Amino acid sequence: MKTTIAEAGKHTNQTVTIGAWLANKRSSGKIAFLQLRDGTGFIQGVVVKAEVSEKTFRLAKELPQESSMYVTGTITVDDRSPTGYELAVQEIDVIQEANDYPITPKEHGTEFLMDHRHLWLRSKKQHAIMKIRNEIIRSTYEFFNNNGFVKVDPPILTGSSAEGTTNLFHTKYFDEDAYLSQSGQLYMEAAAMALNKVFSFGPTFRAEKSKTRRHLIEFWMIEPEMAFMDHEESLELQENYVSYVVQSVLSNCKLELTALERDISVLENIKAPFPRITYDDAITFLQKEGYEIDWGEDFGAPHETAIAESYNKPVFITNYPKDIKAFYMKPHPERDDVVLCADLIAPEGYGEIIGGSQRIDDEELLKQRYDEHQLSYDAYQWYLDLRKYGTVPHSGFGLGLERTVAWICGIEHVRETIPFPRLLNRLYP
């Protein structure tokens, strides 16, 4: 019977065949221990010399790392194993001997591993990160589908910027200028006017020459937009969404969190509601803590970390100054110097994982913003039309997938949270 490592528990005391690679091995005289992986998980294969052919035992002792094979044996219960099972090997059918595999069990430098990212993905830690990334994506779809959202796919090639910045990748679109999208938000607002509650999930691109542990050039965003929803309702949706994702990972990725040695006690506490602090109060707090920052300045990583350390959950920072936020954010009803927005800051120094706001729904005010930001009416007329034909209060936000993966996994750098990261000086592999 052919099966996978993930399904091994369903075949206890049965003889099965698994297609696998040899991740590592060790031997002790007349017993060889094979660390096998098949992409669905890891299992130990035990080869006892007295119970197998001479050829099988020789292969168990001599096969090099990452050789591919079919392994036939009996699934047995083993309480010492992280999975609870091991494979009593009876036969090995080699597909290929992989000689001189470059990533050995010894320590390697980050640049070396990044040069061999196509192989590094096979390691136990990287496998765990990718499985958790997948669970975050799966539970995201589940959450929004369960809450009446429709998935809409905005374009990747656009004729203008979503946020009016210049950090865009330029390309030619036949005889026109085009850019790789830095956000699908404006298009999602149009979709919300048609479908009420929508979300997108796709790649975005920022041509920022940043080398921090929180930044990628190409990354993935989840961007919901909701018609007839105000800022406060959006915040409640955001905290419920993040809580749902974290709890889904805790329920479905126990082995992966263990492989990463993640302290799950901090994740178990991630349940809505989340604390909130205004930008004004955040500035006062930082100044009392000795940070040199004035009202009107944006927060950097040290500021966000200092604020987050005061809480054991993600924290919303609300009502930022209008001048440091995007043109489409709705002004606060009681103040014209701040907008109805919030950034969600993750604990443990992982920084902002969500940025969101209530959007301007007044046509004349949006025209004013166009003028202030020197935006082209030709390029943005369609966006203005949304306020001209049946405008309604609406809100939205964007969650950065890779930062969220880094936080939930407890890993330092976002380069390990995406299969093939695009960094300032890395376009290979």
From TrEMBL:
Residues 130-429 form the Aminoacyl-transfer RNA synthetases class-II family profile domain. GO terms for cellular component: cytoplasm. CDD domains: AsnRS_cyto_like_N, AsxRS_core. Its main location: cytoplasm. GO terms for molecular function: asparagine-tRNA ligase activity; ATP binding; catalytic activity, acting on a protein; nucleic acid binding; transferase activity. The keyword Cytoplasm applies. GO terms for biological process: asparaginyl-tRNA aminoacylation. It comes from the Bacteria. The keyword Cell cycle does not apply. It catalyses: tRNA(Asn) + L-asparagine + ATP = L-asparaginyl-tRNA(Asn) + AMP + diphosphate + H(+). It is found in: Cytoplasm. Pfam families: tRNA-synt_2, tRNA_anti-codon. Its EC number is 6.1.1.22. Keywords: Aminoacyl-tRNA synthetase, ATP-binding, Cytoplasm, Ligase, Nucleotide-binding, Protein biosynthesis. PANTHER family: ASPARAGINE--TRNA LIGASE, MITOCHONDRIAL-RELATED, ASPARTYL/LYSYL-TRNA SYNTHETASE. Homodimer. Belongs to the class-II aminoacyl-tRNA synthetase family. This is Asparagine--tRNA ligase. The lineage of its organism: Bacteria, Bacillati, Bacillota, Bacilli, Bacillales.
